[in-house]
Amino acid sequence: MIFQPVLNIFLLALLCAPVAALAVIALTKAKGRGKALWAMRLVMLLACFFMFLRPGIPGGATETLATDTDIVLVVDTTASIVAEDWNGDEPRLDGVRADVQTIVDEYPGARFALITFDASADLRMPLTTDTTALVSSLEVLRPEVTSQSRGSSIGIANQLLTDTLSNAAEASPERSRMVFYFGDGEQTVTTAPEPFDGSEKFTDAGAVLGYGTAEGGPMKLTTGGVEGSSSEYIEYQGANALSVIDEANLEAIAAELGVEYQHRTADAELTLPDAPSTTSSYAESGSVGTVTELYWIAALVVVALLGVELTRASMLVARLRLLRAPSASPRRKTPTGGGAA
User: Fold this and answer.
1) Distance, CA of 171 to CA of 260 (rounded, Å)
2) On the chain, which terminus has fewer CB atoms closer than 10 Å, C or N?
3) Which of 72, 82, 268 is nearest to 184 (CA)?
4) 0.85 exceeded by the pTM?
């Protein structure tokens, strides 16, 4: 048996010992039924102490795969990322979120960084193993405000990506690095996209994932408010503006990074590359022991004894109410007139 106390063992003893001493003193002085009651209360205190110790029986060990890899996610946050042609008429950003979750599940133990880009590129989250924070960041992610949009380049994140990868390589040269680019390839400025070839030497694997359709999808106005978007759509020449995927641009980015390109649809399973074999292993830190908890036994004892105490208290209250109730016997009336005959 092992113990995993909720507090330091000495602090638990300091809290319980005075109460136990009072219970023992009361037990020695009590007589008759009182002795049994105080014995029960002492048992309840000991059961609580046992429960706070969190006893358990050690079981086997489960090894978990630790991927010694740094993964950088580059996500398009221009207005077109909410174009409604994913899985019919859902925003493309829904597909991005689903695919990121798949990537997180596929590479346990990896460190993740998040870069977003629209008119500028931002490092939203530096490398971290906190995947909960990563997924939460994507859940609240909103595209740029429509009224502030002045066009964007699909390659504007090239320098920030190179810097992030090079810093990771310098800090942890033994770790591999992967890049996943999420976007629709739509270049909305007149200049040519900036190349990503500076990141290729730091990239061991990854993929460029494309979202959208050739028919295009309408885009709702984004306001920057709490709800993120309005019910109105962006219009062009009196009709809903449509965002169309540019797979040629996405394939060019994939070639510059030295990774594969995939066109993503809701009904197709995401194909992910294996993490480099030299950096995926069952690390010692990945060994997780299993313990069968036993504190619930003490909890049942406490509940049972509390039930006895509550029953006794209810009976005492009922007796007190009977004692305090007014007498039901009638009073004799005193004669008010006439004397003895």
Assistant:
1) 27
2) C
3) 82
4) no
Cite the DSSP H helix spans in the chain: 9-29, 33-52, 92-106, 131-139, 158-171, 247-257, 295-324
| 270/18 Cα distance (integer angstroms) | 62
Report CA-CA distances (Å) from 95 to 100, 173, 208, 253. 9, 33, 14, 20
Note the pLDDT tens digit of each residue in 66-104.
678 999 999 999 989 999 999 999 999 999 999 999 999
Q: What are phi and psi of 133, to 5 degrees?
A: -65, -35
Residue 297: what are its φ and ψ, rounded to 5°? -65, -45
- Whole-number Cα distances in Å, 161 to 81, 105, 282: 20, 23, 29
Alpha carbon distance 178, 312 (integer Å): 67
DSSP track, 266-319: TTSPPP-PPPPGGGEE--GGGEEEEEEE-HHHHHHHHHHHHHHHHHHHHHHHHH
- The one-letter amino acid code at 151 reads G
Q: Quick: pLDDT tens for 286-311.
A: 444 557 788 888 889 889 988 888 88
Helix (H, G, I), strand (E, B) or coil at 171: helix
> Rounded to whole angstroms, what are the CA distances from 260 to 51, 115, 252, 254, 277?
55, 19, 10, 6, 18
- Mean pLDDT over residues 227-233, rounded? 68
Q: Are 111 and 126 in contact (CB under 8 A)?
A: no
